[in-house]
């Protein structure tokens, strides 16, 4: 089983390596120098945010410029529809229905990718370099067709990579792809900061302040992510006797952050979809709206704050099913001291989860907005937000847990094979 775990890790690393290779394959017909000049002037706005999630693929105008966000956006829409329409929610719970559910998400991904690709390709036609040269070097109509098919192929490949990592590798594939994209930008950000300090455009004390904010953000995230409320459980004497040779859990752990990293990713995806389309327009009114929504602005951070809280409650209600936990507990002969089994246990668990989600959602909203506001005010020459750190830390912790779980399972199976 040790070899099996090693194989899963190698599969995961192989797909992540392929993802990074795709980030260096540009869309045909694009003048990369013009794109580079444009991004040098837009490192800490909406494009900087999108570029961070794509692993610098947008800066290189790669075939995976849209990243995995169209897939996440389609998944958000389906989750909302499943919560609204009971028939769709039931489809998600059934094995055959889940396959249809995922197929609908894939079709939705295709539609969103095509719409965004058209918007990006149209916007590139209006982009000019420092000398007035166009960002497009071929016929505009041919370029739109090539760009749409290239970006569609890139996004669908990323979606497939994510599914393969989840099924055959270690950890959640989609989260690991976003993780790899964010981490890949760290060396460039460090290099940019060092160059700014050497040139005198950034004070060394400012760099220390930025580092202090980053370290504080990481420590807060680790502290909260490892925090949980443990609900004590008692078992009847009969249940204890039946399971005397087995380990019976004597508490129910409820995490402070029940929804994990999903709310910031969902909120970013929801905001990035209209921003991608708005950035492509040359209309002055549309441009004005795009400027109001740029990261660092009041409107963007306010919307991010509200969306994260909404998605935190929404996803926590899906991830934590108090009724199922109460029924399983009753079936196993367990009960919470002072609380009747069944409906009262479910209500008690839901009340505890709701209170924790209030604090968990506020934590997510604050950690995703405040660090960026502070660092942006200090004049950082790169995009940095609490969302990025949250994703990196949480995905790293989650992947470590899953690797440890795989190792534990391997040890138990080895002991079982030798008869112990």
TrEMBL record:
A Gene Ontology BP annotation from the UniProt entry: protein transport by the Sec complex
Stored NCBIfam families: 3a0501s007 (TIGR00967)
Residues that span the membrane, as ranges: 61-83, 104-123, 143-162, 174-197, 203-224, 256-278, 298-322, 356-374, 380-397
Main location: membrane
Localization per record: Cell inner membrane; Membrane
Protein's organism: Nitratifractor salsuginis (strain DSM 16511 / JCM 12458 / E9I37-1)
Matches recorded under PANTHER family: SECY/SEC61-ALPHA FAMILY MEMBER
SUPFAM superfamilies in UniProt: Preprotein translocase SecY subunit
Topology class, membrane: Multi-pass membrane protein
Function per UniProt: The central subunit of the protein translocation channel SecYEG. Consists of two halves formed by TMs 1-5 and 6-10. These two domains form a lateral gate at the front which open onto the bilayer between TMs 2 and 7, and are clamped together by SecE at the back. The channel is closed by both a pore ring composed of hydrophobic SecY resides and a short helix (helix 2A) on the extracellular side of the membrane which forms a plug. The plug probably moves laterally to allow the channel to open. The ring and the pore may move independently.
Family from the record: Belongs to the SecY/SEC61-alpha family.
UniProt entry tagged with the keyword Protein transport: yes
Protein name, UniProt field: Protein translocase subunit SecY
GO CC terms, sorted: plasma membrane
Entry keywords, A to Z: Cell inner membrane, Cell membrane, Membrane, Protein transport, Translocation, Transmembrane, Transmembrane helix, Transport
Oligomer and partners: Component of the Sec protein translocase complex. Heterotrimer consisting of SecY, SecE and SecG subunits. The heterotrimers can form oligomers, although 1 heterotrimer is thought to be able to translocate proteins. Interacts with the ribosome. Interacts with SecDF, and other proteins may be involved. Interacts with SecA.
């Amino acid at each position: 089983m040790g070899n099996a775990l090693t194989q899963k890790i190698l599969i995961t690393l192989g797909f992540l390596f392929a993802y990074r290779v795709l980030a260096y394959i540009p869309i045909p017909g694009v003048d990369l120098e013009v794109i580079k000049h444009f991004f040098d002037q837009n490192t800490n706005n909406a494009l900087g945010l999108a570029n961070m999630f794509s692993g610098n693929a947008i800066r290189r105008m790669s075939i995976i410029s849209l990243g995995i966000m169209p897939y996440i956006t389609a998944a958000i829409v389906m989750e909302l529809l499943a919560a609204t329409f009971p028939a769709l929610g039931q489809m998600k719970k059934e094995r055959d229905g889940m396959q249809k559910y995922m197929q609908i998400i894939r079709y939705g991904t295709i539609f969103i990718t095509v719409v965004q690709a058209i918007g990006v390709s149209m916007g590139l036609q209006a982009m000019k370099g420092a000398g007035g040269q166009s960002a497009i070097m071929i016929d505009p109509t041919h370029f739109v067709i090539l760009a749409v098919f290239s970006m569609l192929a890139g996004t669908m490949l990323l979606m497939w990579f994510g599914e393969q990592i989840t099924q055959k590798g270690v950890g959640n594939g989609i989260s690991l792809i976003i993780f790899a994209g964010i981490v890949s930008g760290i060396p460039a950000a460090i290099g940019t900061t060092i160059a700014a300090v050497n040139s005198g455009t950034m004070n060394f004390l400012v760099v220390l302040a930025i580092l202090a904010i980053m370290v504080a953000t990481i420590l807060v995230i680790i502290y909260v992510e490892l925090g949980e409320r443990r609900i004590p459980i008692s078992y009847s004497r009969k249940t204890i006797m039946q399971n005397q040779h087995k380990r019976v859990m004597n508490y129910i752990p409820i995490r402070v952050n029940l929804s994990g990293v999903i709310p910031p990713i969902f909120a970013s995806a929801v905001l990035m979809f209209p921003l991608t389309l708005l950035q492509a327009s040359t209309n002055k009114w549309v441009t004005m709206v795009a400027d109001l929504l740029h990261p660092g602005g009041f409107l963007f951070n306010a919307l991010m704050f509200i969306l994260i809280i909404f998605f935190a409650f929404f996803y926590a209600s899906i991830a934590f099913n108090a009724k199922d936990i109460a029924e399983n507990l009753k079936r196993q002969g367990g009960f919470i001291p002072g609380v009747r089994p069944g409906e009262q246990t479910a209500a008690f668990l839901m009340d505890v989860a709701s209170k924790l989600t209030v604090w968990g959602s506020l934590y997510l909203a604050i950690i995703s907005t405040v660090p960026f506001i502070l660092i942006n005010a200090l004049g950082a020459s790169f995009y940095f937000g609490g969302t990025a750190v949250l994703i990196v830390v949480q995905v790293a912790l989650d992947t470590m847990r899953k690797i440890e779980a795989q190792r534990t399972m391997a040890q138990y199976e080895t002991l079982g094979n030798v008869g112990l």
